């Protein structure tokens, strides 16, 4: 295995559980979650549902499983679903929305801003047709939008999008892998960003730093069905409280996301001063445009800085393992590199 980069900005998934999390895992009260319910899992699910203003929740081993379980509930053969360009469900989940959930994707442009479709394009993509056309049944949104650069859909736009979907007879699923970051950036309660959605998937293993886990939230009937689907997908875990305990610590640490956002701005400012073409970050993701992103990522790796390419750009992600000093060190390493 290649050595890890000294300053790892490839993703906010690279965090390792801290002492507080490990202590909570060691002390977790556990039971068999497949047979009945693990008490710590139940506590985590209840707390996530409350924070997101939804009636019920179900722990999932990954965000991908949370998304596909939701889509399996919402879609049938012959259905079409709408999602913004470069959405995770479109290109980063092996097409499971199509082959497991049976939905045909239809891509919405980012005509509302980076990562954001407009209500008008939602309406335009649901025009009913003759009997041999697909039925458009689902709008799948992503907040923040990862590949657009961790971009935020504000509350008013979210409301307008879900209203357009509802008027058009669509159910809404929110891929909220980084919904915590959106809420922190907007300074709003995360529940403000879930109203109007039938299902929401949130990750505990991204910026919040848990080693494993996502949560799907919805109403009680859908969550009972999601529990069956999770079992079907092989996602039932036994003494899951060990993992849920880390998830609870992660969930309660979301106040610190503002630091990650400040570090992303520090990185973007520094790169710009060094002549790089960088988008202004809205959350913890910084996108840079270079002539040959793959070559830039290789040069960064040689300088001890981990980054990746997404959607033809170079992506840096800040997280709880990165300090302001790490950003200074990354910038010093970048100073030696060609800017474009
Ligand atoms: C990471 C991510 C997921 C999937 O989560 P996993 O836990 O990696 O399966 C889904 N959507 C978005 C936007 C993500 O960034």
Please tell me about this protein's structure.
The structure is a single chain. The chain is an alpha/beta fold. It folds into 2 domains: 7-15 and 256-334, Aspartate Aminotransferase, domain 1 (Alpha-Beta Complex), CATH 3.90.1150.10; 19-251, Type I PLP-dependent aspartate aminotransferase-like (Major domain) (Aspartate Aminotransferase, domain 2, 3-Layer(aba) Sandwich), CATH 3.40.640.10. The chain is built from 13 helices and 13 strands. It has helices spanning 19-27, 39-52, 63-74, 88-91, 96-99, 119-124, 155-167, 179-186, 220-232, 241-251, 257-273, 293-302, 324-335; strands at 7-8, 56-60, 79-84, 103-108, 135-142, 171-176, 199-203, 214-218, 277-278, 285-289, 305-306, 308-310, 313-317. The strands form 3 sheets. The chain has a 7-stranded mixed beta sheet with strand order 2-8-7-6-5-3-4, with helices on both faces. A hairpin with a 2-residue loop joins strand 12 (308-310) and strand 13 (313-317). Helix 1 (19-27) runs antiparallel to helix 10 (241-251) and helix 2 (39-52) packs parallel to helix 10 (241-251). The two termini are 29 Å apart. The model has no long low-confidence stretch (mean pLDDT 96). Residues 62-64, 67, 88, 142, 146, 175, 177, 203, 205, 214 line the site of pyridoxal-5'-phosphate. Belongs to the threonine aldolase family. This is Threonine aldolase family protein. Its cofactor is pyridoxal 5'-phosphate. It comes from Rhodococcoides kroppenstedtii. Keywords: Pyridoxal phosphate.
